[in-house]
Design goal:
By secondary structure, the chain is α/β, with parallel strands linked by helices. The protein is built from 17 helices and seven strands. GO terms for molecular function: ATP binding; ATP hydrolysis activity.
Length: about 400
C-alpha cells in the first residue's frame, strides 16, 4: 500500500508539471484570461479586427463598403438611364410612324422654288451660269446635286428618314476648265443648305500634305484638314500623293488620313480631288478606297474656241474694259493658233492673253497721249477702257512670226 501511494503521488506531481497554465486556476481566473493568446505572445497570430468604430481597421472597412455601394448605385443609375433613353427612342419612333401613317399623300411641304430661293441655292446656280461659259454638263451635274439637297431638306420638314448623302467629289479635266471655280460654288451651296458650317474652300497640293521625313506627314495633313473643316478641301493633282515606284513614300500616310476623315467626318468636311482624267483613273486604281468614298464624279471638257472668246468677253466685263467688235475676230484667230501649241490651258491661257492685251492697250495709250502729246495729253474714259484689234494682233504675231523655240510661251 505504501508503494502504491507513493506511485500515485509521483504521477500527480508529474502531471501538474506538464499541465496547461489554466489547469489548477480558479474559474474566475480562467474567465478573466479568456482573451489571452494561449500560444503565448506571438504577434503574427494576434487578431487585429474588432468592432470598435474608432479603430483604423474599422474605418477602412467602412470606407470600402461605402465605395462599393456608390459604384453599385452608379452602375444601376447608368443602366436606368440607358433603359429610359431606349424607351424614349422607341416612343419617338412609334410617334413618328403614327404621324407618317396618318399623313395624307397630298400633305404640302412647300414648293421647290421656295426652298431654292429661301436657302439661296438658286442665287448660287445663277452665279454659276453667269460666271462660267459653257460647261453645260458640269452645270447640270451641280444642279442635280443641289436638287438632291433641296428635296432632302423638304423630306426633313415632313419627318421622313434622311441621311447626309455622300458629297465627296472628283473633278477631272485639263487645266483652266473651271474646276476650282465650281468647287467654290459647291462650297457656297453646301453652306446655304446647311451641309457645311462655313462653305469655304481650302486648296491643297502634295507639298501642303506630305512631309519630308518620318513623323512630318501626319501633322501637315491634319493641319490642312483642320483649316478645311466646315467646308471643302480641294486636293489638286491628287495623283501626286501616291508614288507607285516608292513603297516608302510618305504620301501613302497622307492618303490613309484623308480616307479616315472622308469616312468619319463626312458631315463636316467635303473632300474634292482634281486632276487630269487619265491620271486620276490610274490613281483610283491604286487607291480603290478613295474611289468608293466619292459619290460625285464630274468631268470638265476642254472649251471650244468660241467659248474661249466668250470667256474673254466675261473677263473684260468684270475688269470694266470694252473690246472692239473687230478685236474679237483677231482674238479668235489667236486662240485657234494657240490651241495648236503645247501647254494650252483653256481659260488660264485666255486670262494670260487678256493681261497681255491690257498691257498693249496701256502702252498704246501712254505713247499716244504722254509721249506724242495728242489732244494735249488729255485722254478720255473710252481710251482707258478700250482694247482694240491691234492689241490682240501683237500677241498673235508673237506666235506666228516669233522664234519657234519660244512660241509655246507666247
Amino acid at each position: 500500500m505504501k508503494f502504491s501511494a507513493a506511485v500515485s503521488l509521483l504521477f500527480v506531481a508529474s502531471a501538474s508539471a506538464f499541465a496547461p497554465a489554466s489547469v489548477g486556476r480558479s474559474a474566475t481566473q480562467i474567465a478573466a484570461g479568456s482573451n489571452q493568446n494561449p500560444f503565448g505572445n506571438v504577434k503574427s497570430l494576434e487578431y487585429t479586427g474588432g468592432d470598435d468604430p474608432n479603430s483604423s481597421n474599422y474605418g477602412r472597412l467602412a470606407e470600402k463598403l461605402n465605395e462599393a455601394d456608390i459604384e453599385r448605385r452608379k452602375i444601376q443609375d447608368e443602366a436606368d438611364r440607358r433603359e429610359r433613353a431606349a424607351e424614349i427612342r422607341r416612343e419617338e419612333r412609334l410617334a413618328k410612324i403614327a404621324y407618317m401613317n396618318d399623313m395624307p399623300d397630298s400633305q404640302p411641304a412647300g414648293t421647290v422654288d421656295e426652298f431654292m430661293f429661301k436657302e439661296g441655292v438658286q442665287d448660287q446656280l445663277d452665279k454659276l451660269d453667269h460666271d462660267l461659259v459653257g460647261l453645260t454638263a458640269v452645270k447640270q451635274r451641280v444642279k442635280e446635286i443641289a436638287a438632291l439637297l433641296v428635296l432632302d431638306k423638304m423630306r426633313r420638314k415632313l419627318g421622313f428618314e434622311t441621311s447626309v448623302p455622300s458629297l465627296h467629289m472628283s473633278f477631272t479635266g485639263a487645266p483652266g476648265t473651271g474646276k476650282t471655280t465650281v468647287a467654290v460654288r459647291m462650297g457656297q451651296i453646301l453652306a446655304k443648305m446647311g451641309y457645311a458650317r462655313r462653305g469655304h474652300v481650302v486648296l491643297a497640293t502634295r507639298d501642303d500634305l506630305v512631309g519630308q521625313y518620318v513623323g512630318h506627314t501626319a501633322p501637315k495633313t491634319k493641319e490642312m484638314i483642320k483649316k478645311a473643316m466646315g467646308g471643302v478641301l480641294l486636293v489638286d493633282e491628287a495623283y501626286y500623293l501616291y508614288n507607285a515606284a516608292n513603297d516608302r513614300d510618305y504620301g501613302q500616310e497622307s492618303i490613309e488620313i484623308l480616307l479616315n476623315v472622308m469616312e468619319n467626318n463626312q458631315d463636316d468636311l467635303v473632300v474634292a480631288v482634281a486632276g487630269y482624267k487619265d491620271r486620276m483613273d490610274k490613281f483610283f486604281s491604286y487607291i480603290p478606297g478613295m474611289m468608293s468614298r466619292i459619290g460625285n464624279h464630274i468631268d470638265f471638257p476642254n472649251y471650244t474656241a468660241d467659248e474661249l472668246v466668250q470667256i474673254a468677253a466675261v473677263m473684260s466685263r468684270d475688269l470694266e474694259y470694252d473690246i472692239d467688235d473687230a478685236a474679237y475676230d483677231t482674238f479668235k484667230n489667236y486662240i485657234e493658233e494657240r490651241m495648236k501649241l503645247p501647254y494650252f490651258s483653256n481659260a488660264r491661257t485666255v486670262r494670260n492673253a487678256m493681261d497681255r492685251a491690257r498691257m498693249n492697250s496701256a502702252i498704246r495709250t501712254f505713247e499716244k497721249y504722254a509721249i506724242d502729246g495728242v489732244n494735249g495729253g488729255v485722254c478720255t474714259v473710252e481710251d482707258l477702257k478700250n482694247i482694240s484689234a491691234e492689241d490682240f494682233q501683237i500677241i498673235l504675231d508673237d506666235i506666228l512670226d516669233g522664234d519657234s523655240s519660244k512660241r509655246i510661251f507666247a
